[in-house]
Write a structure and sequence with these properties.
Chain B: One of its GO terms (molecular function) is protein homodimerization activity. Chain B: InterPro entries: MFS, MFS_dom, MFS_trans_sf, MFSD1. The complex is a heterodimer of chains A (400) and B (465). With 400 residues, chain A is α+β, with helices and mostly antiparallel strands. In chain A, the strands form four sheets. In chain A, strands 1, 2, 3, 4, 7, 8, 16, 20, 21 and 22 form a ten-stranded antiparallel beta sheet that branches. In chain A, strands 9, 10, 11, 12, 15, 17, 18, 19 and 23 form a nine-stranded antiparallel beta sheet that branches. Chain A has a two-stranded antiparallel ribbon with strand order 5-6. Chain A is built from five helices and 23 strands. Chain B is mainly alpha-helical and 465 residues long. The termini of chain B are far apart. Classes of the chains: A alpha+beta (400), B mainly alpha (465). Chains A and B meet through helix 5 of A and helix 11 and helix 17 of B.
Chain lengths: 400, 465
């Protein structure tokens, strides 16, 4: 009974894998650095992912706060236009557009605004930290970002935006903060932890702090992120608790910032991450740094002054902004202090966030392990019955 | 001290016991033939094992701290348990021999207690000096003493309580062992945090000091061993009794005569225990991460198996003795354990339920499984069979501990739980096979106690005829 049930389960998993297969969807991805401008004084990376009858544009830039603008269009030929003079001016609204404009079906932006540092002696919970616990925050918009020249790669579809704190003038701010962006042509799972499952509709960003000296003995860091939703749309923060930690050992929670479902057929987007950061570029489970996230802030928020999001979306009337903080480091864990390295990965994409599934190996082990004793029991039971029958006959035999 | 010497001198004169008690009346507490004195001895016997059981699970109680302060991955961490098991793969065969032929029970106990103490000290020193291999060496030395000390403890029990309250005494000793583990699980985290407050920071020194404090229990047990040795010697003089012996005769060549049933019992034993002890060793972090327990709560739930087995072992022992049907009980225990593991793996249900099930099943299995050996092995091979069973159990624990650590680091708790479930399933396969083997060969493993009694009577009658 159990076996057949399990086999059924296995079968249905197989079938669902075969029928759904959003994983099989592939896009042709190309990278473009500062399109239409010959300088590398500012960074703008255009990732163009062409699918069947649609195109996804991921535009990353460190002009102002590091930002990604995501535009989904229903055309294979839509293209990005950048007005560089306007973009670098003080009123950049309208400097970037995707044309033809009517092909644009959905757009959103994610802005990485600030890095907070606070004293975690009493609590590592950002929301419980007192005002006096905070050190001056690092405003990422004021960082000096390295030129992306030579730091992006068309073949592995990666790019690294690396910045240092500029207004720390000569006080020896060694270390850096980097955003490592990876685009994907198809669906697969990352090899390094946290081994997020990605699809062709998403790209990964890793927030990496390396060598930044903590200003206190038990410093904790937190990243402030803004995301926006156009029109009447709103963002929603979800926690997906899963029993399955086989890809990210000991982490049972996935958090995701998604578009709240709407009746109109406007698209949706997501930011998805596991509640773990890692204290080593070659991450092992033992390098896990726990991360916490806090309730979404939605009231009276505006985007940070300068960012690509402003250049694309303009004044606030058309969209709702949601603010999110993610803090790194649990109680009694000084992993960052020791290694001076922290890497936190998130997946940003269009549509519904990918869902993890049990690996086939798990299913097979389970089926075999549970099935064998049951089979044995059945086989043994039959033998016992047969033997009993025989014995009965042999008992009657002499009488005949 | 002077009085003790006097007493000893008086004893050396070697008066016959009856006259000793009549001629020189002693208070009940000091008279080895009186119950009060035997109770005192019982208390000492129980505390004899307390230290080693307390310290055995020190790593589990401090898993996060050990891994953080010593900067080791989980496989290395679990090696601390493996290093405890390695010496016992061999020592299980020789523990009895060493006690009977080489040291004698008194010196044997003292020597093994010393090993436990020294092992714990080396373990703590390793932490203080931030050298992990020294910690492993400490666990190795600790392991040499730990398991043999349990044998010595049982020998003492037999020599003092044979034919009277022996089963109860065994039960009490086991309960005491579980209490030792429980206290450790719940108190070591607190000790660590106190040391941390004192030293002002976490780190390997803090860990070492905490482990040293844990080691005090071993010193305490050593003192018990010394007093017990003195009292035993004294009783020997007064009551003219022989020094206790394990009476174990180990003949490795007997292995070839082991029946299929016995081998199946071995498989059940190994596959079952490797799914319980390594899980407890790694359990704390599981409850913190998956069920969002606080450190304190996680320690409490991780020790619940021991807490339950302390009172339940004697109860189940009694029950199994009265009802018989050992295989059925073992099947129940194994299936319950499997259910518990599957609940922990696949649900977010309150883990207290699963852990309590595990605790009950574990106590039941111990009571039903170990006595089965006596049914399938002739009496003169019993020592070898039990030695062998413990030896492969230790071998299994050593290997699976390290494997479990590696699985956890690379594939996480779900996979680890499935791995443990698979082990329990193997155990289930073995017990189902045992059932059929027993059925077809007409063995008496699964008879009810009544039938067993009848058979025994019949055998006796036949002999008389």
């Amino acid at each position: 009974m159990r076996v057949s049930l399990l086999l059924l389960c296995l079968g249905s998993v197989g079938v669902s894998m075969a029928t759904e297969r959003p994983e099989a969807y592939r896009r042709k991805v190309s990278l473009e650095y500062n399109p239409g401008w010959n300088s590398s004084e500012a960074n703008l990376l255009h990732i163009r992912a062409v699918g069947q009858n649609d195109t996804l544009h991921f535009v990353w830039s460190t002009i102002g706060a590091p930002t990604m603008v995501l535009v989904y269009t229903g055309s294979e030929t839509s293209s990005l236009h950048v007005n560089w003079t306007k973009l670098l001016s003080n009123s950049p609204f309208g400097a970037i557009r995707v044309e033809p404009e009517e092909s644009v079906l959905y757009s959103t932006a994610v802005v990485f605004a600030k890095v907070y540092e606070y004293n975690g002696t009493n609590t590592s919970d950002l929301s419980k930290a007192l005002a006096g616990d905070f050190y001056p925050a690092y405003d990422l918009a004021n960082f000096t970002w390295d030129s992306l020249d030579g730091k992006w790669n068309q073949s592995d579809l990666t790019a690294t935006f690396r910045g240092v704190c500029a207004d720390h003038g000569g006080t020896g701010w060694n270390g850096s903060i980097a955003f490592q962006v990876t685009a994907f042509e198809g669906s697969d799972r990352d090899a390094p932890l946290p081994r997020l499952l990605h699809s062709a509709n998403s790209s990964k960003v890793a927030f990496v702090m390396h060598g930044v000296a903590p200003r206190g003995k038990q410093s904790r860091f937190a990243l402030e992120i803004f995301a926006l939703e156009e029109g009447s749309g709103r963002k929603e923060l979800q926690s997906v608790r899963s029993i399955d930690d086989e890809y990210t050992p000991t982490i049972f929670e996935m958090a995701q910032l998604v578009s709240r479902p709407r009746n109109d057929s406007v698209g949706s987007s997501f930011v998805q991450w596991k509640t773990a950061a890692y204290a080593s570029p070659d991450a092992q489970r033992t390098d896990t740094i726990h991360c916490q996230y806090y309730p979404l802030r939605t009231a009276n928020l505006s985007l940070p002054g300068r960012s690509l999001a402003y250049a694309f979306f303009g004044p606030e009337a058309h969209y709702a902004v949601a603010g999110l903080n993610v803090s790194f480091g649990g109680e009694d864990s000084e992993a960052y202090q020791e290694k001076r390295y922290l890497s936190w990965s998130a997946l940003i994409g269009y549509g519904e966030p990918p869902e993890d599934m049990f690996s086939t190996l798990v299913m097979v082990i389970l089926a075999v392990a549970l099935g064998t004793p049951v089979l044995l029991l059945v086989a043994g039971g039959i033998t016992v019955c047969v033997a009993a029958q025989k014995r009965r006959y042999s008992e009657y035999d002499p009488i005949n | 001290m002077a009085t003790m010497e006097e007493e000893e001198e008086a004893l050396l004169e070697g008066e016959p016991p009856a006259e000793a008690s009549e001629g020189k009346p002693m208070p009940a507490l000091c008279d080895p033939s009186r119950l009060a004195h035997r109770l005192l001895v019982l208390a000492l016997m129980c505390f004899l094992g307390f230290g080693s059981y307390f310290c055995y699970d020190n790593p589990a109680a401090l898993q996060t701290q050990v891994q953080r302060d010593m900067k080791v991955n989980t496989a290395q961490f679990m090696a601390l348990y493996a290093w405890y098991s390695w010496p016992n793969v061999v020592l299980c065969f020789f523990g009895g021999f060493l006690i009977d032929r080489v040291f004698g029970i008194r010196w044997g106990t003292i020597i093994f207690s010393c090993f436990v103490c020294i092992g714990q000290v080396i373990f703590a020193m390793g932490a203080i000096s931030n050298t992990f291999w020294l910690m492993e060496a400490g666990r190795f030395v600790f392991g040499i003493g730990g398991e043999s000390l349990a044998v010595a403890q049982n020998t003492y029990a037999v020599s003092w309580f044979k034919g009277k309250e022996l089963n109860l005494v065994f039960g009490l000793q086991l309960s005491m062992a579980r209490i030792g583990s429980t206290v450790n699980m719940n108190i070591m985290g607190w000790v660590y945090s106190k040391v941390q407050d004192l030293l002002g920071s976490t780190g390997h020194t803090t860990l070492g000091v905490a482990l040293f404090i844990g080691g005090v229990t071993c010193i305490f047990s050593l003192i018990c061993a010394l007093i017990l040795a003195y009292l035993d010697k004294r009783a020997e003089k007064i009551l003219c009794k022989e020094q206790g012996k394990t009476g174990e005769v180990i003949k490795l060549t007997d292995v070839k005569d082991f029946s299929l049933s016995l081998w199946l019992i071995f498989i059940i034993c190994v596959c079952y225990y490797v799914a319980v002890f390594p899980f407890i060793g790694l359990g704390k972090v599981f409850f913190i991460e998956k069920f969002k327990f606080s450190s304190q709560e996680a320690s409490a739930i991780n020790s619940i198996v021991y807490v339950i087995s302390a009172p339940m072992s004697p109860v189940f022992g009694f029950l199994v003795d009265r009802v018989g049907k050992n295989i059925t009980w073992v099947i129940c225990a194994v299936v319950t354990t499997l259910t518990a593991h599957i609940m922990l793996a696949f649900t977010f249900w309150n883990p207290w339920v699963a852990m309590c099930l595990l605790g009950v099943a574990y106590s039941l299995l111990a009571c039903a499984l170990w006595p089965m050996v006596a049914f399938v092995v002739p009496e003169h091979q019993l020592g070898t069979a039990y030695g062998f069973m413990q030896s492969i159990q230790n071998l299994g624990l050593a290997i699976i501990s390290i494997a479990a650590g590696m699985i956890l680091d690379s594939r996480g708790y779900l996979f680890l739980e499935i791995f443990f479930s698979a082990c329990v399933c193997l155990s289930l396969i073995a017990v189902v096979m045992l059932y059929f083997v027993n059925y077809f060969r007409g063995g008496d493993l699964n008879l009810s106690a009544k039938k067993r009694e009848k058979l025994q009577k019949l055998a006796v009658d036949e002999k008389e005829i």
